[in-house]
Design goal:
UDP-N-acetylmuramoyl-L-alanine:D-glutamate ligase; nine-stranded mixed beta sheet; 14% strand; binds ligand NPW; binds adenosine-5'-diphosphate
Length: 267
C-alpha cells in the first residue's frame, strides 16, 4: 500500500503530528534519531518530549522539531493534546521519570509505536499496552516480552512475533535479520531485505520514527509497519554498498528517496 499523493494545497496540519517521548539521561540521541526519521519521512509536524538536559542538542541538530522539556507526566499533557501519533521508548530508560511518561502515554487513545524501554517496562508488568499499539522489539526485547531467551525467539521468529501480537494485542515488528511483522488478525509478513552493516546503535530508533511518520500520514497501521521495515532495510542495503560504519542517522536521507520512488509526493 502506498502513501496517497498530496494535493497542491496540502498543509502541514493534514499530515499528522508525531510526538516522540524518549531520551533519559545519557540516551538523548535515541529520541533525536527517531524524530529525525519522522521528519524525513514527511510527518507534518514532529515534537520531542525529553529530558531538559537534551534540549540544546536537539535544537541545534533538528531546528524543525518542536522540543518539549518534561520533568513530569503533567508536563506531557499539552504535547499529548497536540499530537496525532506517539513514538514511545527510544532511550526512555526505566527510571521514575521514564515510568511517569510511559504511564501517561499508555492512557492516551492515540495510535502509538512502543520501542526499547517502553517494551522493557511492558514486559516487567508495569503497564498494559494501549489500544492501537505497534510494538517493535529486537530479539532481546522480544524474549523479555515472552519471558524466554533470545535464542528461543530466534529459533522460531514467526511464532515469537505471533505470540507477542496475541499476548499484547498489538501489531508486532520483530526486528533483526529478516524482520517479521505480525498483526492481531493473524497476518504475517517477513521482509527478506537488510544487511549486517545495519547491526549498530540507533537503527531501531530510526525505524520507530519512520513508522510514526507513515501512520501520521494516514497509512493503516499494518501497512505502515510493513512499508517502514521495507524502506529501512532497503536503505540499509544501499548504504552498505560502501561497507560497514553506517551511522543510523545516514539512513534518513536514503529512506526519504526510496519513499519518493515508492509513493511519489505528487502522484
Ligand atoms: N544513541 C542512543 O541514545 C541510543 C540508545 N539506545 C537505548 O539503549 C537502551 C538499551 O538498548 P539495547 O538494545 O542496547 O539493550 P538491550 O535491550 O539489553 O538489548 C541487547 C540484547 O538484545 C539481544 N539482541 C538485540 N538485537 C539482537 C539481534 N538482532 N539478534 C539477536 N539478539 C539481539 C541480545 O541478546 P543476547 O543475544 O545477548 O541474549 C543483546 O545482548 C535502550 O533504551 C535503547 O533505546 C539504543 O537505541 C542505541 C542508541
Ligand atoms: N544483521 C542484520 N540484518 C538486517 N537488519 C539488521 C541486522 N542487524 C540489525 N538490523 C536492523 O537494525 C535495526 C536495529 O534495531 P535495534 O536492535 O532496536 O537497535 P537500537 O536499539 O540500537 O536502535 C532493526 O531494524 C534491525 O532489523
Amino acid at each position: 500500500m502506498r502513501l496517497a499523493p498530496r494535493a497542491m494545497a496540502t498543509h502541514k496540519g493534514q499530515l499528522g503530528h508525531v510526538l516522540v517521548i524518549a531520551g533519559d539521561l545519557n540516551m538523548g540521541g535515541a529520541g533525536l534519531l527517531s524524530a529525525q526519521a519522522a521528519l524525513r519521512c514527511g510527518a507534518g509536524m514532529v515534537s520531542l518530549a525529553t529530558r531538559e538536559q537534551h534540549l540544546s542538542a536537539a535544537l541545534s541538530r533538528l531546528p524543525e522539531v518542536m522540543t518539549c522539556p518534561v520533568r513530569s507526566s503533567a508536563e506531557l499533557l499539552v504535547p499529548l493534546a497536540r499530537a496525532s501519533v506517539l513514538v514511545v521508548g527510544p532511550g526512555l530508560g526505566q527510571s521514575s521519570w521514564s515510568k511517569a511518561l510511559l504511564s501517561a502515554a499508555a492512557q492516551s487513545a492515540l495510535p502509538q509505536i512502543w520501542d526499547a524501554d517502553a517494551l522493557n517496562l511492558l514486559a516487567s508488568g508495569f503497564c498494559h499496552a494501549p489500544q492501537q499499539a505497534i510494538l517493535t522489539p529486537h530479539p532481546g526485547e522480544a524474549a523479555r516480552l515472552l519471558n524466554c531467551s533470545s535464542a528461543e525467539v530466534q529459533a522460531d521468529r514467526n511464532s515469537a512475533a505471533r505470540m507477542i501480537a496475541e499476548r499484547y494485542n498489538a501489531i508486532t515488528v520483530l526486528k533483526g535479520q529478516h524482520t517479521v511483522i505480525a498483526s492481531t488478525r493473524g497476518e504475517l509478513s517477513c521482509v527478506e531485505r537488510g544487511h549486517p552493516a545495519m547491526a549498530g546503535a540507533g537503527f531501531g530508533d530510526v525505524l520507530s520514527g519512520v513508522i510514526g511518520a507513515l501512520l501520521a500520514q494516514h497509512l493503516p497501521a499494518y501497512s505502515a509497519a510493513c512499508l517502514a521495515v521495507w524502506l529501512h532495510a532497503c536503505a540499509g542495503e544501499q548504504l552498505a554498498l560502501q561497507g560497514r560504519g553506517i551511522a543510523a542517522s545516514d539512513l534518513c536521507q536514503a529512506i526519504r528517496l526510496l519513499l519518493e520512488e515508492h509513493s511519489p509526493c505528487l502522484g
